[in-house]
């Protein structure tokens, strides 16, 4: 057997020195950020394994879990994003990214259901396209973080139906694009659309992430919400939701996406100017949303 010559700069692997040996193996990484991230990852992974005394069967189970997570992914299913969501990583990275948002609207997770393009629609159009549910009017305005209206801003919206399903989950019953819309705001940055009230729903549970939630007795539900991506030239795109005030699971969202500022009332409207102005069937629910974008400069 060839022997390893010991010298001052050769350090062989041992439990005590594992971080040192493995981080050193990345010392020559030319990309400084890649080096920083990998070396930090190694330090934390090794510290974690030592803290919990990780056993070989447990490592094998983790590798099997991650393998099956990858195998569950396809064009319309992203199990790794879901895993990141339920571990709070998606929200943590989103929060770090948007740390200094000032007076801009708070962001939240994108989620896995923005995988199809929203159909362009006219202001005022019904994104539910006549589907049954509690009739709802959403009005709003896109503003800069200094409060100035942003003419021609765009909003991309998508939501689940009154049973908690997205169009892509009901391909045989619902045309793709249902409960989705891409709108261009008017000269005052205003928008409006018709829809139905969204219901709370469980995130997909038929994969490894579902197993994880079941094994840990965590529920899979998200509170009722509508997704938005707002954009305007010169401003950072805003990915967020509005959550329905009073919805179940606001205090225990399976993906930790709720922020207090994003919870809004959907008032019941029975009469008044809005009925005539928007030609809505009464009664209907209404909410008004201000989306403030952060200047990209
Ligand atoms: C969603 O809101 O569409 C969503 C977000 C994270 C995980 C699953 C679904
Ligand atoms: Fe959603």
Automatic annotation (TrEMBL):
Superkingdom classification of source: Bacteria
Enumerate the PROSITE patterns for this protein. Answer: INTRADIOL_DIOXYGENAS
Tell me the cofactors it needs.
Fe(3+)
Per UniProt, the keywords (alphabetical) are: Dioxygenase, Iron, Metal-binding, Oxidoreductase
Q: Where is the Intradiol ring-cleavage dioxygenases domain?
A: 138-166
Q: Which family does it belong to?
A: Belongs to the intradiol ring-cleavage dioxygenase family.
InterPro entries, per database record: Catechol_dOase_N, Intradiol_dOase_C, Intradiol_dOase_core, Intradiol_RC_Dioxygenase
Any Pfam family matching the protein = Dioxygenase_C
> In its keyword annotation, does this UniProt entry include Iron?
yes
The source organism is: Pseudonocardia xishanensis
Listed name of the protein: Hydroxyquinol 1,2-dioxygenase
Record has Transcription as a keyword: no
């Amino acid at each position: 057997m060839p022997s390893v010559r010991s010298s001052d700069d050769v350090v062989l692997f041992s439990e005590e020195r594992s971080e040192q040996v493995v981080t050193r193996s990345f010392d020559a990484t030319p990309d400084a950020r890649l080096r920083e991230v990998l070396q930090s990852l190694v330090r934390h992974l090794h510290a974690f394994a030592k803290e919990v005394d990780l056993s070989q069967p447990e490592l094998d189970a983790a590798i099997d879990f991650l393998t099956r997570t990858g195998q569950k992914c396809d064009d319309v299913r992203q199990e790794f994003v879901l895993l990141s969501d339920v571990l709070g990583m998606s929200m943590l990275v989103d929060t770090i990214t948007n740390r200094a948002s000032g007076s801009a609207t708070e962001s939240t997770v994108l989620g896995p259901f923005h995988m199809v393009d929203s159909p362009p629609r006219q202001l005022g159009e019904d994104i539910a396209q006549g589907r049954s549910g509690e009739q709802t009017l959403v009005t709003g305005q896109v503003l800069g973080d200094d409060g100035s209206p942003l003419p021609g801003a765009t909003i991309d919206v998508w939501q689940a139906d009154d049973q908690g399903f997205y169009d892509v989950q009901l391909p045989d019953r619902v045309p793709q694009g249902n409960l989705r819309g891409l709108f261009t705001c008017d000269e005052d940055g205003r928008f409006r659309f018709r829809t139905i009230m969204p219901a709370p729903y469980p995130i997909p549970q038929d994969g490894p992430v579902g197993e994880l939630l079941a094994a840990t007795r965590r529920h899979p539900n998200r509170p009722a919400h509508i997704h938005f991506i707002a954009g305007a030239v010169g401003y950072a795109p805003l990915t967020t939701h509005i959550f329905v005030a009073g919805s179940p699971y606001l205090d225990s969202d399976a993906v930790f996406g709720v922020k207090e500022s994003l919870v809004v009332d959907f008032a019941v409207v029975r009469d008044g100017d809005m009925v005539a102005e928007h030609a809505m069937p009464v009664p209907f629910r209404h909410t008004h949303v201000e989306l403030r974008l952060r200047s990209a400069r």
